[in-house]
């Protein structure tokens, strides 16, 4: 009997000593735990949700922490569901549940492995903030000490508030607000009981029970949560029966397809638009998901085997409505729509003919399609044939290379380069005679922009993809403003160009782009069919399509008037289906020609004018470092000056039937 008493005394002494040691550890831990306000502070990493024009989330970036909800703001259903399923005795224990721990050790002894953690909500919070998830005995002891310390420092309400705002629910979502927005696309303050049950069920295994990954598993788990809530007396049997998790609308998972080409383009622009780098934000974009799906399908279904394709669609205000940078983002995230530079071929004739029209040519003017040689260069037409005397309109419609070469010689390739610069081409431009056939490289988005500016009656526009940026509370921190626009060419020049391009689709090389309503556009094909283009506009929407190989190897049968034009038409039929049919303003009044009249300065010399009709004082030197290499003028000899002023060399006047301008 004496030895029993001694054992009891030793046991009690050991227990008291253990409690003293535990108390010391808890006191030390309490001093190291951050304050409640510090724990509430947002962790590093900003949540960014990118939305399409209709509000659909198309991409989420960074860890999602949502909006911090105080204990009173958290729905009662959410608090009760979490306590019921994770820690039923939460309000009764001091941070550690002896019953739960005993059960955990019992199962461990029976099964030989840890299957039930026995962790309370406070222990889980301590582990999430300060520890890891390794199932080690030493980590479990530290977890218990931290949990006890937290319970002495914070109230039950504060601990539950921290837990519900910090626990991980899967899919990058931390906290109930982030989880609610990810899975239901609304804030946690509006959670229904069914939605709360789904979220509460995620903590046990976020990846296994995620409603976007396995909807059935998530709904089954939510049913278990509802049963537990009823068993704990938190809801009645009638309330439990009324919960229908299967009727909850789950937000669709952001796609990982071609929309990523678009988001990869717009997201870097945020740095120049907003200063917010910590708070969660929503980026509202111009992307039209219906158009995007149509664009993806048009490229995939029409691109030649082994080739790639790109598409950009720009609305009349510059809003980018669709963007495809390749046939498959998963296998290649290289964005050919905005990054790749390729030769545009005859699509470059947009700038050649704009320069010609601005220089005095008219669509009805007669030109001669015939063999020509310029500085040793002999351009050939696509079919190898020559049509003789034709109108400028016909020459453009059938993409006659010899006529484009003659125009380049007449107006000057430097003038054409300047026109391309005016219309937003930013890549280097050569001024060799062959440049008129599109030997300089350009980006798809830049070429599409140039065609859109013609559609805008010659006024400038800037492609943009972000319409506004808001906090998750709905506060607008950026809103796109109407862009400042300048007149790049006179309206009659843009109207004449539209006239030419409309003919190219109606009867010329772009016939495959007919969609049953007015279309203006131009094909482009480079040497050996390495690149195929079609760019054009209809009903206020301008779209550019490119196809080719990344290694610039030839693609058999690839011509701008075939696969690219067919893809363009397939996309545009859907994209403009809901828009009113618009007729083009091609009935424009051209300025009166003054063939024999020239402006003179005070000294009787010809007066040079700029594009606005203002006198130019002095002529810049060819070696002026302020002039970009690609736009330096040709040598200022007498022949160049005659061209610049529209004068003809001193020779007999042409006969009435001679082609004008050549």
Briefly say what this structure is.
With 662 residues, the protein is an alpha+beta fold. 38% of the residues lie in helices and 10% in strands.
Query: What spatial order of strands do you see in the largest sheet?
Result: 2-1-3-8-9
Structural class: alpha+beta
Q: Over all CA atoms, what is the radius of gyration?
A: 36 Å
Main sheet: strands, sense, barrel: 5 strands, mixed
| SS field, number of helical segments | 22
Inertia-based shape: elongated
Quick check: average pLDDT? Answer: 82
Show unreliable segments.
592-638, 640-648, 650-662
* Number of strand elements: 12
Strand % is: 5-15%
Seen as an oligomer or otherwise, the chain set is single chain
Percent helix range: 25-40%
C-alpha termini separation? 128 Å
How would you explain this protein's 3D organization?
By secondary structure, the chain is α+β, with helices and mostly antiparallel strands. Helices cover 38% and strands 10% of the residues. The protein has 22 helices and twelve strands. It has helices at 2-32, 36-40, 76-86, 98-111, 121-130, 137-153, 156-166, 176-184, 193-200, 206-209, 215-231, 237-242, 259-266, 289-302, 349-358, 392-397, 401-411, 413-422, 444-455, 491-506, 563-575, 638-644, and strands at residues 48-51, 57-61, 281-285, 308-314, 320-324, 366-369, 388-391, 466-471, 476-479, 520-525, 531-538, 541-548. The strands form three sheets. It has a five-stranded mixed sheet with strand order 2-1-3-8-9, covered by helices on one side. A five-stranded antiparallel sheet has the order 5-4-12-11-10, with helices on both faces. Helix 3 packs across helix 11 (215-231) and helix 15 (349-358) crosses helix 20. The longest helix is centred in the N-terminal third of the chain and has 31 residues, at 2-32. Residues 592-638, 640-648 and 650-662 have low confidence and may be disordered.
